[in-house]
Amino acid sequence: MPNKTPRIAVDAMGGDHGLTGIVSAAVSAAKKGTPITLVGDEYMIRSELEKLDTGSCTIDVVHASQVVTMEDKPADAMRKKKDSSIQVACRLVKDGLADGVVSAGNSGATVAAGMFIIGRINGVLRPGMAGILPTEKKPMVLIDVGANVDSKPEHLFQYGIMADVFARDVLGFKNPRIGILTIGEEEGKGNSLVKTTYNMLKSSSLNFVGNIEGRDIFTGDVDVAVCDGFVGNVALKLSEGLANSLGNLLKGELKRDIVSKIGAMLAMKAFKRFGRLVDKSEYGGAPLLGLKGIVLVCHGKADSLAIERAIEMAARFVKNDAVAHLKEGLAAHSEITESTL
Amino acid sequence: MPNKTPRIAVDAMGGDHGLTGIVSAAVSAAKKGTPITLVGDEYMIRSELEKLDTGSCTIDVVHASQVVTMEDKPADAMRKKKDSSIQVACRLVKDGLADGVVSAGNSGATVAAGMFIIGRINGVLRPGMAGILPTEKKPMVLIDVGANVDSKPEHLFQYGIMADVFARDVLGFKNPRIGILTIGEEEGKGNSLVKTTYNMLKSSSLNFVGNIEGRDIFTGDVDVAVCDGFVGNVALKLSEGLANSLGNLLKGELKRDIVSKIGAMLAMKAFKRFGRLVDKSEYGGAPLLGLKGIVLVCHGKADSLAIERAIEMAARFVKNDAVAHLKEGLAAHSEITESTL
């Protein structure tokens, strides 16, 4: 059922910043036309909503009596917090009352709730989490960024198929260039996981461009890079950390003499434009691909803009019928996937 | 035999920039007191030397009739190019005519020559390549950055022991903080490789600080991060690529309006200081640890300063008797290492 109006369930209780920013992001997205269901402590949510001009937007509230904290272990949270906002949100999708979930809460628990409540698309071996990174040109997709570790070639192969659909349906790429992240440019370079996956991708109908190295991620010359969740998560967090540290070092140097200080003030406009280019909020969340609905996992530190962007991404995913396209893509490649099982 | 004067064999034929920069780096290091043997095409090397003021420095030249190119496969290079500069340089160490090797040539071939000609220290399972990264504070060591992929816990454990010695003897750290690179802060997070290695490091006498994430690498709060060569190589190249891309994006924005342009010119001093802070040349090469001598693998793009710094590192390694300390460290931990074999 393509082009339906998607309803997104937003976990109001997740995130390091409390629910003020989340509720205001939800209102903002609702005003732009996406129906929202806010899930969490009803009293707290309604108090936040009262402060905002909600006008004629479609916002429902569904109460959830429990909250998963950042310290909870995913397995414990699954078992002991069945009425937590994230589980209630996922149940809305399962029951057809919402089409997607956005949460900035405990990512492990969010992944677990998505997998066990919403459930996997038939044939998906492991859902993969896609990170969307800014590059010198367009954004690119790194998958998996930590949903699974100790992956097998067939998992990586399916990540490629799923990220291809995501890049088309949500990022609007025509014919995404899919690469495999490894440690040498030539065919046959890498570890055993990469070598087998390489051959699977090569025999697929994807626009496979071969090996890419860490240094190629940010040039924007490839649209999707496939890797194991351990590697992807290290890469994602390292990028975040390096960008921060470089920023700190540069700021320190710009303050160290008065002429540089004045120069930096004059160049403020450029620094701001630069900041927007590399702003994580622009692609607010990491989609968990392979479920019967869409779950957007936001950073615990996500601000209101990031949450709003994540809601928009989830809505675009549903509008463009990406789940159906995921099914088609996976089915078309099932023979290659099964060849290694 | 501690505190001896080390002689370093420099591969004059490696690197993307030709031998001019390499020879001048060698002369510069020799002038500061490190005896050098330049290895490669004797005629070419002597022509370069003639252009420089070599004064009273100790520089020998040893002829090698072959050159390993960047395109050569390491195994082919080992077999077919026995008189290549890198093999001749390693043979000098094997024969006691030099104490260490510096090369900016084909890194795979350099690692292979080091392993098969100089040979491993008794008990070393896999030599590991250490990358030295600038951070917000002191530099830090990431090991392994690509000598091996598909590593086992005992390999990672030995990398930790060897990097500890390197950080003490060459970087001058008193009690290096050793962490394991993984994807969560708490004990028990990561893949199966990391979990086993964690326990080995925990039961060692190293100053083990536990799990560290990608984002912690550049803060400078840990001195050594241990990881598989696949992960380390991706991390190293990604850092390089991201720093470049951020630089390009910022430069682009600074040029986009005239006020920012003027501001950037005024702040030039700060940008230069910043550039020096993050300059790769500062720690010119990646040491291959675990051999009966030291091999410094430089980036193909290494400039003259980087090569000179690499020569200095190699010399410091020998002067401080690091091979003996590696042996001691490995022997002291052999029981833990063998527990998983």
TrEMBL record, chains A, B:
GO cellular component, one term: cytoplasm
Catalytic activity: a fatty acyl-[ACP] + phosphate = an acyl phosphate + holo-[ACP]
Keyword Lipid biosynthesis belongs to the record: yes
Enzyme Commission (EC) number: 2.3.1.274
Subunit structure: Homodimer. Probably interacts with PlsY.
Function field: Catalyzes the reversible formation of acyl-phosphate (acyl-PO(4)) from acyl-[acyl-carrier-protein] (acyl-ACP). This enzyme utilizes acyl-ACP as fatty acyl donor, but not acyl-CoA.
Name of this protein: Phosphate acyltransferase
Taxon lineage: Bacteria, Pseudomonadati, Thermodesulfobacteriota, Desulfovibrionia, Desulfovibrionales
